[in-house]
């Protein structure tokens, strides 16, 4: 699986001018680019000619969003 390192760019502010831009991904694969777009506050349009990749990406993105929601909800409980 391809890994994308985006934290140094996020923390340095290099990507901020491009927030809310649209990322177009004609080969959605496992959804890595979609997740990177979410992390950098971008909109995303992705598609693939193989349904299997679309389903894989949907599952992975759903899992990522659930993890983010869990982390957000857990931080509320610890801040008491």
Give structural notes.
The structure is a single chain. The chain has helices spanning 7-12, 32-39, 51-78, and strands at 22-25, 43-46. Strands 1-2 form a two-stranded parallel ribbon. The protein has one domain (7-75). 52% of the residues lie in helices and 10% in strands. Mean pLDDT is 79; it is low at 3-12. By secondary structure, it is mainly alpha-helical.
Number of domains: 1
- Find the count of extended strands (DSSP E, 2+ residues): 2
Helix percent reads 40-55%
Q: Indicate the structural class.
A: mainly alpha
As residue ranges, the low-confidence spans are 3-12
Strand portion: 5-15%
User: What do the pLDDT scores average to?
Assistant: 79
User: Order of strands in the sheet with the most strands?
Assistant: 1-2
Radius of gyration: 14 Å
| Cα shape | flat
Structure annotation, total helices: 3
Helix/strand order, N-terminal first = HEHEH
Summarize the model shown:
By secondary structure, the protein is mainly α. Helices cover 52% and strands 10% of the residues.
Observed structural traits:
80 residues; 3 helices
Question: Secondary structure elements and their pairing?
Answer:
Blueprint: H1 7-12, E1 22-25, H2 32-39, E2 43-46, H3 51-78
């Amino acid at each position: 699986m391809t890994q994308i390192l985006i934290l140094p760019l996020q923390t340095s502010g290099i990507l901020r001018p491009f927030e809310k831009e649209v990322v177009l991904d004609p080969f959605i694969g496992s959804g890595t680019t979609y997740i990177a777009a979410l992390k950098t506050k971008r909109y995303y349009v992705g598609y693939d000619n193989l349904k299997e990749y679309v389903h894989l990406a949907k599952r992975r993105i759903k899992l990522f969003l659930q993890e983010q929601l869990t982390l957000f909800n857990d931080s509320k409980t610890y801040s008491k």
